[in-house]
């Protein structure tokens, strides 16, 4: 493996109240060249601190989290670090959820059931784009 493929270019933080989902994402995303799993959380407050401390570039989150929703987290990240790419991956895909996440500052919104692979491919494309620029 050469230095370009082993260099981390995207740090991804996972936020979901289901540990099984976080494990699956960590396994899939961690296998992408240039992607490092920066941390995990199951609620918005814990995650915000971890995301900022880890200097994550990308956050993948569910709409529903332990103790609430991710809308406040999306808004807080949009204010604190607008450059963080905020990806919502959820089973709550009604138009109202999509619109609320977009209004809060989410960059992408995926259906966890039908678009799980699309979310992973999006992160892969982000990492490839950053690797090409470095």
From TrEMBL:
GO biological process: phosphorelay signal transduction system
Location of the Response regulatory domain: 11-127
Keyword tRNA-binding applies: no
Modified residues (4-aspartylphosphate): 62
Protein name: Response regulator
Record bears the keyword Phosphoprotein: yes
Xref: Gene3D superfamilies: 3.40.50.2300
Pfam families attached to this UniProt entry: Response_reg
Domain of life: Bacteria
GO terms assigned for molecular function: DNA binding
SUPFAM superfamilies cross-referenced by the UniProt entry: CheY-like
SMART domains in UniProt: REC
Keyword list, A-Z: DNA-binding, Phosphoprotein
PROSITE patterns in UniProt: RESPONSE_REGULATORY (PS50110)
Residue runs in coiled coils: none
């Amino acid at each position: 493996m050469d230095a370009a493929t082993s260099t981390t270019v995207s740090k991804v933080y996972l936020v979901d109240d289901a540990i099984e989902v976080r494990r699956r994402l960590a396994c899939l995303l961690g296998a992408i060249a240039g992607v490092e799993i920066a941390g995990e959380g199951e609620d918005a407050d814990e995650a915000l601190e971890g995301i900022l401390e880890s200097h994550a570039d990308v956050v993948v989150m569910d709409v529903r989290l332990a103790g609430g929703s991710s809308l406040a987290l999306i808004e807080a990240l949009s204010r604190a670090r607008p450059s963080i790419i905020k990806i919502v991956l959820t089973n709550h895909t009604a138009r109202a959820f999509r619109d609320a996440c977009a209004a809060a500052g989410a960059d992408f919104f995926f259906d966890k059931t039908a678009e799980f692979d699309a979310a992973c491919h999006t992160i892969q494309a982000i990492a490839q784009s950053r690797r090409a620029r470095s």
